[in-house]
Amino acid sequence: MRTQQGTPKIWKMLLLLLLIFLVACSQQSTPPSMATTRPKKTYRDLVVGFAQVGAESEWRTGNTASIKEAAEELGVELIFADGQQSQENQIKAIRTFIAQQVDVIGVSPVVENGWDSVFQEARDAGIPIILVDRRANVDESLYATHLGSDFVEEGRNAARVMAKLLNGKGNIVELTGTTGSAPAIDRYKGFREIMQEYPEIHIIASVDGDFTRARGKEAMADLLKQYGSQINALYAHNDDMAIGAIKAIEEYGLQPGVDIKIVSIDAIRDAFQAMIDGKLNATVECNPLLGPKFFELALKVVNGEAVPKWIPSSESIFYPENAREILPSRKY
Ligand code: GYE
Fold first, then answer.
1. Would residue 19 count as lying in a domain?
2. 187 in ligand 1 pocket by Cβ < 6 Å?
């Protein structure tokens, strides 16, 4: 009797165990990717915060226009913050983007250092950072990718051109970009790398012109007061400073491009005009039209696709000889 009564109980237990086993198996056989896959985002789903440096140069206004136009064309929602060349403003903007839970943050860091904590905050919130144009001095794990030029190579190219213009001999003054910014650091470095091959070329002064026309003019006027006709050439880290300096040289009574050879960087439209007018001897291109590529990268990053850690631009050098012909095709 006991055995007769006991049998159905055992069967029930076994059935229950079998059921538990089957449920466990069915859960395990679900591919892990199926459980976590989210539908891919499109441009129209993207909300992007962009912390811009400011509006210090024509290069920058060209860069801002490219970003805004690309967002508009692609249908990306862009929240744009102008940092007015202050790191504090840029950090505040990034914190606001984090609070707004944007999908991606783009930033062009005004200076290289001091970004660790705010980038870490973005990472903790799961928001990827993309460096656009300028680099930040942080661990690679704190940003998804960097889209921007090879500033060291630009400095090297400026030096190669300058050495030819001076026939390997002369005194150069330098107007550097914003102290502590990636392009100022690299353009300074690249220029010297090449110039060390020319023992009869001397860099007699190097002054911060903050990438602006006004500061470029002021700084060049001071340099002329100090060194006068000892100056054979000017190397400016951007065209805007060179254009400011051209005014100072004219006011001093010398001929820019002739008495003082000038090489600068960016290749903005006004630099082409200065070359046509015979006041600038060469400009090394730096491409600000980064908008479309930036959003392409943003979308990839958000969708978990792999992107390279650095995407440099390909750039050339322009001379007075064909400046008139090229100017109409320049977009910035
Ligand atoms: O050369 C200058 C601008 O970061 C490459 O910033 C950029 C530089 C550019 O103000 O004109």
1. no
2. no
Domain that holds residue 66: 43-148+289-312
The rounded mean pLDDT for the chain is 93
The pTM score is 0.89
The CB of 60 under 6 Å from ligand 1? The reply is yes
Question: Domains in the chain: how many in total?
Answer: 2
Q: Are residues 114 and 155 in the same domain?
A: no
Nearest CA-CA partner of 59 in 152, 136, 132: 132
Domain assignment present for 26: no
142 and 155 co-located in one domain: no
Task: With residue 77 as reference, give the H or E element that holds it.
Answer: strand 77-82
Establish whether residue 318 lines the binding site of ligand 1, counting it when its CB lies within 6 angstroms of any ligand atom.
no
Q: What is the pLDDT of residue 4?
A: 43
Gap from CA of 257 to ligand 1 centroid (Å) = 22
Distances (CA, A) of 262 to 7, 53, 70, 271: 101, 26, 34, 11
Atom of ligand 1 nearest to the CA of 148: 5
Per residue in 46-55, pLDDT tens?
Answer: 999 999 999 9
Q: How confident is the model at residue 150 (pLDDT cuts 50, 70, 90)?
A: very high
Residues 164, 272 within the same domain: yes
Query: Which atom of ligand 1 lies nearest, measured to the CA of 58?
Result: 11
